[in-house]
Design goal:
With about 180 residues, the protein is an all-alpha fold. The chain contains 7 helices and no strands.
Length: about 180
C-alpha cells in the first residue's frame, strides 16, 4: 500500500469518526453549521470593507454596499461571539427552511399540473418528463408536510438536520476509504 493510499484511508477514517460525532451530537452539529455561517458573514464583510474603496472608485459600490458590509460584520461577530445570537440565528434559519419547504411544495404541485397539460406532445423527451407529473405532485405534498412538521416540531427538525449531516459526512469518509483501495 502506497503512502498516498494510506493517507487517503486515514483521512477517510478520520472523516467517518467526525461524522459519527456529528450524528451522535446532532444539536451541536446544527449549531456548528450556524457558527460557520457567522464566520462566512464576518469574512465576507471584511472582504467588502477592504475592497470598498476600489469598488467605489470603479463605480461598483455605493453607501448601500458599505452599510451592508458593516451590518454583515456586526451580525457575523454577534453569531460567533454570542451564544444567544447563535440560537436565534439557528431558529430563524430553521423557520426559513420550513417556509421554503412549504412554498416549494406548493409551487411544485402547480408546476406538476402545468406539466400534465403538456403531455402527449409527440416529442419523446418531453413526454417522458411530463409523464412523471404525478411524482412531482407527490414530492410537493411531501415537502408541504415536512414544512408543516417542522413548524410543529422545530427541535426534532433541528436534531434531524444535524443527524443527517453526520450520516452524510460518514458516507463521504467511507467513500474516501474505498477510493484508497481502488486508486491507482
Amino acid at each position: 500500500m502506497t503512502a498516498k493510499k494510506i493517507f487517503m484511508f486515514l483521512l477517510g477514517l478520520l472523516t467517518v469518526i467526525g461524522g459519527m460525532y456529528c450524528a451522535g451530537t446532532p444539536g451541536m452539529t446544527f449549531l456548528s453549521m450556524v457558527w460557520v455561517i457567522g464566520f462566512v458573514m464576518f469574512f465576507h464583510a471584511i472582504e467588502e470593507l477592504v475592497t470598498y474603496g476600489e469598488k467605489k472608485r470603479l463605480g461598483l459600490a455605493d453607501g448601500w454596499n458599505l452599510a451592508g458590509a458593516i451590518i454583515a460584520l456586526l451580525c457575523g461577530l454577534a453569531i460567533i461571539i454570542s451564544g444567544q445570537a447563535e440560537l436565534v440565528t439557528g431558529a430563524t434559519l430553521l423557520y426559513f427552511l420550513f417556509v421554503w419547504l412549504i412554498a416549494a411544495g406548493i409551487t411544485g404541485i402547480f408546476a406538476a399540473f402545468k406539466l400534465k397539460k403538456h403531455q402527449d406532445t409527440g416529442v419523446a423527451a418531453i413526454d417522458s418528463f411530463t409523464g412523471k407529473w404525478g411524482w412531482f405532485v407527490l414530492l410537493g405534498i411531501i415537502m408541504i408536510i415536512a414544512g408543516c412538521f417542522g413548524f410543529a416540531h422545530p427541535i426534532l427538525s433541528m436534531l434531524s438536520i444535524g443527524f443527517i449531516v453526520g450520516i452524510d459526512i460518514m458516507v463521504a469518509g467511507i467513500n474516501m476509504m474505498v477510493r484508497a483501495f481502488t486508486a491507482a
